[in-house]
Write a structure and sequence with these properties.
There is one protein chain. This protein is an alpha/beta fold. It has 20 helices and eleven strands. Strand 2 and strand 3 (68-70) form a beta hairpin. Helix 15 crosses helix 16. The model is unreliable at 22-26, 28-34 and 467-482 (pLDDT under 50).
């Protein structure tokens, strides 16, 4: 090879090497640039497989039941995590202040703690779309005259819990009501103040309408005086950040569960029966809990264990049916503690319906059979409400109701849909289209709501006794939505 040819070959070789160098340099640079980009908050959560949610222990947020953790905020967080295909790590705080602090310090991704949106909080938190609208209410004990307005509070002591949005509301109201005064209680939360008011140890306090609705079932002396301020909104709180990835996902989530009625179903699960509050009936149950139930409690517990049903649910059914009277008889001929018909008693081999043991065990067996008839895709607690309605009406009428829901374009597997159509089974233009005909569906809805209310109260009373908190008032569930 000549000198000129060697020089040309060398130049080509050098050019090729330089080209390869540029290629790998550019590729490496691209890789470095790509890997150096920080993950968004949403990507980090998905990559870690964990969503950190700070919440508070309370009847409308998060609490432990015999079936594990439940509560409106709990269920919403679990649904959102399922959407992201991750697990939830719940961090339970003692107060709204602690929940907000966990967000500020980066210890949680979302605060699902029954937080009310207010202007002060909006300066340091980013709120997801609101999911519930509440009123703030003044509460008092029925041992005092009812106050009709803010000016009537001057004769007593108004206490509110520190760190709640109620303090902000009262400060705004004081501009127009100069004589409005209150004490800030740094030791008791809202729930504990409600107990003190019910016992007459504090004259007045402020709570949200959800709190009042739930807690009046447990503290029957509590009364709602009047609403104050404007309606308030509950929402999740997120860190204030330029990274909107997680926030945008919560916007999509709440839009979807509102459109597909999932949010309505969850709210009905926790509040649908609470509006059936009847102070006289609840007071009667409290009295009979002390005087009648002890004689039969062992039988309910034994039957509950045998058929894997919470004994307090069986007791709630029996109270709705007979007020725990083993000799009860209805005009329709059903009789005994669990009000079994003659046909049902024969099928269950109950020979003496007035025998409390036979009646309770027969009723428990019948409820277990009824639960077995409910389609498997229907989940608890809706599954239990279906079974209670079937216990009252017969399963055939429940199937008729499910078919009506389908015809009306609803979801037949949701109790919130079924309870809307059950009353139609008493109307000729509807029950004539069904297989099993006329039924007292409206009474069945009332039946289920009553049992749910009795069951909640029995759970409350038994847990009070078991933990020895009767004298001082229970420490749980703590109120939410402040």
């Amino acid at each position: 090879m000549g000198e000129r040819q060697q020089k040309s070959a060398l130049e080509k070789s050098n050019f090729f090497r330089f080209f390869i160098y540029l290629f790998f340099a550019a590729s490496f640079s691209g890789c470095v640039q790509e890997t150096s980009q920080p993950l968004t908050q949403l990507e980090r959560i998905k990559q870690s497989g964990e969503l950190r949610v700070v919440t508070r222990y309370g009847p409308s947020t998060y609490y432990e039941s015999i079936n594990g953790a439940v509560g409106l905020e709990h269920d919403l967080a679990e649904l959102f995590a399922k959407r992201l295909n991750v697990k939830v790590k719940f961090i339970v705080s003692d107060s709204a202040k602690q929940a907000i602090q966990a967000i500020d310090e980066g210890g949680a991704d979302i605060a699902a703690a029954g937080l009310i949106i207010d202007e002060a909080r909006k300066k340091k938190l980013r709120f997801a779309p609101p999911y519930r609208v509440l009123a703030e209410q003044v509460l008092y004990s029925d041992s005092r005259p009812r106050p009709n307005g803010l000016t009537d509070l001057a004769g007593g002591v108004l206490e509110v819990s520190a760190g709640t949005s109620h303090v902000t509301t009262l400060k705004a109201l004081k501009r127009d009501y100069r004589d409005l005064n209150w004490r800030i209680n740094f030791d008791q939360d809202v729930h504990e103040l409600l107990f003190l008011v019910s016992e007459g140890l504090v004259d007045y306090t402020v709570a949200n309408s959800d709190q009042a609705l739930i807690m009046r079932r447990y503290y029957p002396r509590l009364q709602v005086a009047f609403d104050i301020g404007k309606t308030r909104e509950l929402a999740w709180a997120l860190p204030m950040s330029e990274d909107a990835s997680l926030y945008d996902e919560t916007v999509r989530f709440f839009r979807e569960i509102k459109e597909n009625k999932t949010l309505d179903q969850l709210i009905d699960r926790y509040y649908g029966h609470a509006e059936a509050f009847d102070i006289a009936l609840d007071s009667s149950l409290r009295h009979d809990y002390r005087t009648r139930l002890p004689k039969f409690k062992r039988l309910f517990v034994q039957a509950g264990r045998r058929y894997d049903i919470d004994w307090r649910l069986l007791a709630a059914i029996a109270y709705q049916e007979s007020k725990w009277s083993s000799t009860a008889v209805s005009p329709e001929g059903v009789r005994g503690m669990m009000m079994l018909t003659g046909v049902t008693a024969k099928e269950l081999k109950v020979t003496d319906r007035f025998n409390p043991a036979q009646s309770i065990w027969g009723g428990a067996s019948y409820l277990r059979q009824t639960l077995g008839n409910i389609p498997p895709q229907i989940e608890d607690p809706d599954r239990t409400w279906y079974a209670l309605a079937a216990y009252n009406l017969g399963y055939g009428h429940i199937e008729d109701a499910r078919n009506l829901v389908v015809k009306r374009g609803g979801d037949p597997d949701k109790w919130i849909e079924i309870k809307k159509v059950l009353p139609l089974l008493g109307k000729p233009n509807w029950y004539r289209r069904t297989k099993y005909g006329r039924a007292r569906g409206a009474l069945a809805v009332h039946y289920v709501n009553s049992i749910r209310r009795y069951y909640d109260l029995l759970v409350w009373l038994t847990e009070e006794n078991e933990t020895g908190r009767m004298a001082m008032g229970p420490g749980k569930p703590r109120a939410a939505g402040v």
